[in-house]
Design a protein that fits this description.
Layout lengths: L1 E5 L5 H10 L4 E5 L4 H6 L4 E4 L25 E4 L1 H9 L3 E17 L12 E14 L5 E5 L7 E4 L4 E4 L11 H12 L8 H16 L3 E6 L3 H14 L3 E7 L7 H13 L2 E6 L1 H8 L5 H26 L7 E5 L4 H6 L25 E3 L7 H10 L4 H4 L19 H20 L11 E3 L5 E5 L2 E10 L2 E3 L5 E3 L4 H14 L3 E6 L13
Helix pairs in contact: 5-6, 5-11, 6-11, 8-9, 13-14
Bound molecules: xanthosine-5'-monophosphate.
The site of xanthosine-5'-monophosphate has 16 residues, from loops.
């Protein structure tokens, strides 16, 4: 793999994505990982990310300079670049001029990581510290007003550094720089793609599972569908899917999953109606993390109960189901606090929301992937577009879209409003422009309205359309006013208890996509 060493940057995740976009597999590792451990992973290259610290301050995170002597190509970005310059004897100090945002870089030598660059490049910078003099053996490739050394390389040791952020879209030629480094300087082939991931995973799954029985919890979302199809490719009929109707699904969703999925894949499916069980357990609960934990636990207990039926139908009497497949993705892991050094933003139901005493071993074939990669795999596995391009829907479902206690009445109300919003967004042809559009019921909030000449005191519905690349960050979608107007009118007309429709115009961060 290419290792991306995280110095606490907002952008380390993005760097990992950009490397994958160049068809090279990458992994994030914390800067605290000993260099020997990094090298044991046999990295084909190492990228040092940016970070908030200043290298010359005491206690600033650094890296054992051994990393520069191992013969592995290294690219330092922003803070990582300064660490490289500092450790190798360059002059790094407070910048005479800090540069934040759009910055013109003068390219002095368009070679190496800047191969093919024009003599002026628009870049995106964020630094108050500068490399004034490159370490011995390095050639300066570019400079800016505030950064005497803005890019440098030592081709013989294959060490490279850049002050700006090539991983952000605001640096238009950033991806070229990353690909120059990976393919040109480090000589890594661009052969990591959906087909290879499938082959690798199929082999790994077969080896892990042997002749054991496996179940997969299907939620109706893209991730679990792709995970199931992938495992099915590996072990065929040893897999049974269990679709749990927890009563928190959207309108028509259960039927859709039961029919479309089976028709598309031919995988064995058992449907369990556990809605009463879930709603009972959620009675009186309005705290989001408590809801998530209850739902995560109930899922597992339901799978455990479904075990007997799975065994019977598989004709595998006397055996047990040993493995549970989950469609966990990389961002779920990171945001549930599972990534190294990450804090727990919320407990994604299939990671942080799981109980401790699970009887199954987990198979999570998508655990290192981003959503767009999962979609590419789904397509490669032959899943139809209706499944692959469905908007993400969280496992805890509408349970985390009712702010307040969850009741059957509130769920029915939200289901109606959500169906209207989905229908109108589809009709307007916006499905692929919008990453997803949660519809949220603020059940405990009331406001005064006038409907049919009468005073009403109802609850608001929030529309939360967002655009995103991987759900780690998101922007609110600029849905045309006419479409919003139609949705608003229809919801207030057709859902009697709703007298207000509001638009959430907050990006992530500072908000998250879901409200809970
Ligand atoms: P947030 O709200 O964290 O959401 O910005 C990021 C993405 O993850 C989805 N999401 C979940 N998916 N189980 C899931 O399978 C969960 O517990 C969960 N919580 C959030 C959310 O819909 C968005 O796509």
């Amino acid at each position: 793999p290419v290792l991306v060493v995280d110095f606490g940057a907002q952008y380390a995740q993005l760097i990992a994505r950009r490397v994958r976009e160049a068809n090279v597999y990458s992994e994030l590792v914390p800067h605290s990982m000993p260099v020997d451990e990094m090298l044991a992973k046999k990295p084909s290259a190492i990228i040092l990310s940016g970070g908030p610290a200043s290298v010359y301050e005491p206690g600033a995170p650094t890296i054992d300079p051994k990393v520069f002597e191992a013969g592995v190509p290294v690219l330092g970005i922003c803070y990582g670049f300064q660490v490289m310059a500092h450790e190798l004897g360059g002059d790094v100090d407070k910048a005479a001029l800090g540069e934040y945002g759009k910055t013109e870089a003068v390219v002095d030598d368009a070679s190496g990581i800047l191969d093919g660059s024009p003599s002026l490049q628009t870049t995106w910078m964020s630094h108050g510290v500068a490399v004034n003099k490159a370490p011995e053996g390095f050639e300066v490739l570019a400079h800016t007003e505030g950064a005497p050394v803005a890019a440098m390389e030592d081709g013989s040791r294959r060490l490279y550094g850049v002050q700006w952020h090539p991983e952000v879209r605001h640096t238009p030629l950033g991806q070229d720089l990353i690909e120059n480094f990976l393919h040109g300087c480090a000589g890594i082939p661009n052969d990591w793609n959906a087909k290879n991931i499938i082959d690798e995973q199929v082999e790994a799954i077969r080896e892990k599972v042997g002749d054991a029985q496996v179940i997969c919890g299907l939620s109706g979302g893209v991730d679990s569908a792709v995970a199931a199809a992938l495992v099915h490719r590996a072990i065929g009929d040893q897999l049974t899917c269990v679709f749990v109707d927890h009563g928190l699904l959207r309108k028509g969703e259960a039927e859709q999953v039961k029919h479309d999925f089976v028709a598309a894949t031919g995988i064995k499916l058992i449907a369990v109606d556990a809605s009463e069980d879930f709603l009972d357990a959620l009675k009186g609960v309005s705290d989001p993390e408590t809801k998530r934990k209850i739902i995560g636990e109930k899922f597992i207990r339901t799978f455990e109960k479904a075990q007997r039926q799975v065994i019977e139908e598989a004709g595998a009497q006397g055996k047990e189901v040993r493995f549970l497949v989950q469609g966990t993705l990389y961002p779920d892991v990171v945001e549930s606090g599972g990534g190294d050094g990450a804090s727990n933003i919320k407990s994604h139901h299939n990671v942080g929301g799981l109980p401790d005493d699970i009887k199954f071993e987990l198979i999570e074939p998508l655990r290192s992937l981003f959503k767009d990669e999962v979609r590419a795999i789904g397509t490669e596995l032959g899943l139809p577009d209706e499944i692959v391009w469905r908007q993400p829907f969280p496992g805890p479902g509408l349970g985390i879209r009712i702010i307040g206690e969850i009741t059957k009445e509130r769920l029915d109300l939200l289901r109606d409003a959500d169906a209207i919003a989905r229908e109108e967004l589809s009709k307007a042809g916006l499905d692929r422009d919008i990453w997803q559009c949660p519809v949220v019921l603020l059940a405990d909030v009331h406001s005064v309205g006038v409907q049919g000449d009468e005073r009403t005191y109802g609850s608001p519905i929030v529309l939360r359309p967002v655009s995103s690349e991987d759900a780690m960050t998101a922007d609110w979608s600029r849905v045309p006013y006419d479409v919003l107007a139609t949705i608003s009118t229809r919801i207030t007309n057709e859902c009697r208890q709703i007298n207000r429709v509001v638009l959430d115009c907050t990006s992530k961060p500072p908000a998250t996509i879901e409200w809970e």
